[in-house]
Design goal:
six-stranded parallel β-sheet; three-stranded parallel β-sheet; globular; binds NADP nicotinamide-adenine-dinucleotide phosphate
Length: 299
């Protein structure tokens, strides 16, 4: 048996197409052009690439983009003032502050300053809390982009009814592991959240029908950790050394080892990454609709 490779690039292209269709309808019927403000502080090379991809995707869909860049020396107070101005600007529907932020800016203070209605990353305490109590779901409200995209790929691969499946999530971060756990609980999965202090991680994984790896540890999950027929979603993005002094990207899964055992697996790159950006576009559209008092589009 060889696992089906889940094509995140194709799924993301389909999602972006549907968002573009709905955005065109919003403009035609209500005269609203969704606007995404992307804030980059500093010049972290990976962040610069991510911001360029997000801006490109938004423009391609037909959104208006506010590309706001400041040097790493920007004082936290000024960043909070920029966010306050974006919060009160009715022409801005979504605010994304690219992480990580340079020291000594306090990430939590910045996230908490974002108006939850414009929180297209789904990371404010209010939006995370709504997800936790089930008020927000994948179909309703603003959910963190990476877990949303991971769940969409999982449903495409493992079927829409995930009830009763045992999911092991490796990682408990605010942006990936924790919201992923709540999304899977809403799908009636039995959820185990593992982290760096988890004992016998391999044993937990061997019992899982679904593994979502989001540890940021290259090739952590080995082939013999996979229960035959499991679905494996690889969120990790790690840059490792390759031949001839070059580097390459790899996930948290030992991909070639996992292929013979799993039923389906996401590649890195080309798996969850493109879906994260597509879900950011979806959230921007949802935020624009919600702010106009319109029904959330079914995409
Ligand atoms: P993070 O904030 O650093 O969290 C990593 C989590 O993994 C922590 O909970 C940590 O445990 C746990 N962990 C680390 N090493 C572990 C190990 N050996 N065994 C078990 N658990 C371990 O990272 P993140 O922001 O969630 O991102 C995780 C990965 O996903 C990174 O590679 C990141 O680049 C990638 N990512 C990808 C996308 C995408 O679009 N594809 C988006 C976001 C992030 P403790 O809590 O105990 O420290």
């Amino acid at each position: 048996m060889s696992a089906r490779v889940i094509d995140g690039k194709a799924a993301a292209a389909r999602l972006r197409f549907r968002v573009a269709e709905e955005a065109a309808r919003l403009k035609r019927e209500h005269g609203i052009l969704p606007c995404l403000a992307v804030v980059l502080v500093g010049d972290n090379p990976a962040s610069t690439v991510y911001v360029a991809s997000k801006n490109h995707a938004a423009r391609e869909i037909g959104f208006f983009v506010r590309d706001i860049r400041h040097p790493a020396s920007l004082p936290e107070r000024e960043l909070l003032d920029i966010i306050a101005a974006l919060n009160s600007d009715a022409s801005v529907h979504g605010i994304l502050v690219q992480m990580p932020l340079p020291e000594p800016i306090r990430t939590h203070a910045v996230i908490e300053a974002i108006d939850p209605a414009k929180d297209v990353d789904g990371l404010t305490p209010l939006n995370l809390g709504r997800l936790m109590i089930g008020e927000t779901t994948l179909e309703r409200g603003l959910v963190a982009c990476t877990p949303s995209g991971a769940l969409m790929l999982l449903k495409e691969a493992a079927g829409c009814d995930l009830s009763g499946r045992h999911a092991v999530i490796i990682g408990r971060s605010q942006q990936v592991g924790r919201p992923m756990a709540h999304l899977l609980l809403q799908e009636n999965c039995t959820v185990t959240i593992a982290h760096s202090r988890t004992a016998e991680l391999a044993t937990h994984c061997r019992m899982a029908d679904i593994i979502v790896a989001a540890a940021g540890h290259a090739e952590l999950v080995r082939g013999d950790w996979i229960k035959p027929g499991a679905t494996v979603i690889d969120v990790g993005i790690n840059r490792i050394s390759a031949a001839f002094g070059k580097t390459r990207l790899t996930g948290d899964i030992a991909y070639t080892e996992v292929l013979p055992n799993a039923a389906a697996v996401t590649p890195v790159p080309g798996g969850v990454g493109p879906m994260t950006i597509a879900c950011l576009m979806r959230n921007t559209l949802i935020a624009a609709c919600m702010q106009a008092g319109l029904r959330q589009p079914e995409i």
